[in-house]
Design goal:
The protein has 13 helices and 26 strands. It has about 500 residues and is α/β, with parallel strands linked by helices. Strands 11, 12, 13, 14, 15, 16, 17, 19, 20 and 21 form a 10-stranded mixed beta sheet that branches. The longest helix is centred in the N-terminal third of the chain and has 15 residues. It is globular and about 70 Å long.
Length: about 500
């Protein structure tokens, strides 16, 4: 039986063999053909320790948002191994702690300068621009991985002040990518923006469907500041964007009186709930009627996307009445779902992660067995509208989405609680001007100057925590609000103190 990785990557290598001159990646103007890119991928795979039947630690990939990142990721998967992204712009202390936690022994350096991981073996590929694959190109390493072998490890926010490493098996992308290619309409001739950094799994929504679909992946450093210009210059047809960025882009284009680029055919959004006013603004944009707008839902533990719905554009269905809440859609064909009596969504299927690295307690709390199936407890509350379409109603715990990242408020509070001069702390999400940000309210210890403590918190978190865990607002307060049972009331604390902070600005 063909392994998960081999079957998953086979279309990519087939294109490299049959049409090696087709553009695979355009990295800031540098065109890399499928032949060249396949040679890069195979060179990375050949440089790694071969897959063994015994468990192996993941291979670290230092990512900088480049074609090298993509080749390194595919190379690790082609070798039947698991990769772990190490974002070069994150604090070194955090990166090194993660490397130690998973026992990483190998890493791939995707740039000649900058931080290098402290591991036994650092692979430095020769990224030869003229390399080419052919019908006699080296075969994929054998033996290939088994479906349950780890494919990647991504660290997300947890509830103990330490990030949790989600371990996703090779069977998961093999199950998810084909339906995503169909959903996004990705095939030969399409140009797909690589917007998200490879440190998160949303980037895989861009990379995997594109390169296994014979399309072209476009990397352009100007996309965040000048999306419309880049989309027109690069003739982008598909873009996967964070909901917050998409809404800001809509506002900017409306303000400028600009139209959407004519090449744009599909825009995929996700990461945060979409409000009705956001969709109304989008529909006012010139050219929006010609663009499919897809709203997607998923989590790292359930691999990329589990639910989707078309909100607007050609062929969009009439949206059900949902009291102003826009739907997250129906499950994809491979996804099982159930909603318990509290409204919490559970998901099953071949796309589920194996669990959390070296954390059986957290794994048992989120992954459960019922009626012979394995289920992931999402922590998301949903309602069901006409036609079975699901509508997001909020979180059942303390996890929130900030700029597309899932953040556990307890993580933030644990990080700040360890800072000098802090007595107690409450973190909360703040929604302003249609965007979500993170705020922290702390009670300083006696004899500590509140402003100095706040500055110390920001300095420490900036040096040691990933950017999405650093609050935009760090506010000293006299006391934290409490519920009638004596628990800290995060939202009441935010509501009481935020107004004064806004007025003082």
């Amino acid at each position: 039986m063909e392994s998960s990785a081999a079957s998953f990557l086979k279309p990519f290598f087939d294109t490299a063999r049959d049409d090696p001159g087709r553009p695979a990646v355009v990295d800031n103007g540098l065109v890399l053909t499928y032949g060249t890119f396949a040679a890069w991928v195979l060179a990375v795979a050949a440089a790694l320790e071969p897959r063994t039947a015994e468990p192996q630690p993941p291979v670290g990939v230092v990512v900088h948002h480049s074609a090298h990142d993509v080749a390194a990721i595919l190379g690790v998967l082609a070798a039947g191994r698991a990769y772990m992204p190490l974002e070069a712009h994150h604090p070194e202390a955090r990166l090194e702690a993660i490397v130690r936690r998973v026992g990483c022994r190998e890493a791939i350096a995707t740039a000649e300068t900058g931080w290098q991981p402290p591991v036994e073996k650092v692979v430095r590929p020769r990224w030869a621009p003229a390399a080419a694959a052919s019908a006699t190109a080296p075969a994929l390493p054998r033996p290939g991985p088994q479906p349950e072998d780890p494919a990647y490890v991504l660290f997300t926010s947890g509830s103990t002040g330490e990030p949790k490493g989600v371990v996703v098996p090779h069977r998961a992308p093999a199950a998810v990518v084909p339906p995503l290619r169909t959903l996004y309409g990705i095939g030969e001739g399409e140009f797909v923006l690589h917007f998200h950094g490879a440190g998160g799994d949303t980037s895989l929504e861009e990379i995997f469907p594109t390169l296994t679909g014979g399309a072209t992946l476009v990397i352009d450093d100007g996309a965040r500041e000048g999306f419309a210009r880049v989309a027109e210059e690069q003739q982008l047809s598909v873009a996967v964007l964070p909901t917050g960025f998409w809404d800001s882009l809509t506002g900017d284009l409306l303000h400028q009186g600009a139209r959407l680029p004519a090449s744009l055919r599909t825009v995929v959004i996700g990461g945060e709930a979409v409000r009705a006013d956001m969709l109304e603004r989008w529909r006012r944009l010139g050219g929006a009627e010609d663009v499919r707008l897809l709203n997607t839902y998923g989590s790292t533990e359930t691999t990329l996307v589990t639910h989707a719905v078309q909100l607007a554009g050609p062929g969009a269905p009439a949206l059900p009445e949902t009291d102003g809440d826009l739907p997250i859609g129906l499950p994809l064909p491979h996804v099982g779902q159930r909603v318990d009596e509290t409204g919490e969504l559970y998901v099953s299927g071949p796309q589920l992660a194996l669990g959390y690295h070296d954390n059986p307690e957290a794994t048992a709390a989120r992954f459960t067995e019922r009626d012979g199936a394995r289920w992931y407890r999402t922590g998301d509350l949903v309602g069901e509208a006409a036609g079975g379409v699901l509508v997001f109603k909020g979180r059942s715990d303390h996890q929130v989405k900030i700029r597309g990242f899932r953040v556990d408020l307890l993580d933030v509070e644990a990080l700040i609680g360890r800072c000098e001069g802090v007595s107690s702390v409450a973190a909360a999400r703040v929604d302003r001007a249609g965007h979500s940000s993170l705020a922290a309210f702390f009670v300083p210890l006696p004899d500590f100057e509140p402003g100095e403590v706040a500055a110390g918190i920001r300095d420490r978190l900036t040096r040691t925590a990933p950017p999405h865990l650093v609050p935009s607002l760090i506010v000293p307060v006299d006391t934290l609000e409490q519920t009638h049972t004596g628990k800290v009331d995060r939202n009441a604390t935010r509501d009481r103190h935020l107004g004064a902070v806004e007025a003082a600005r």
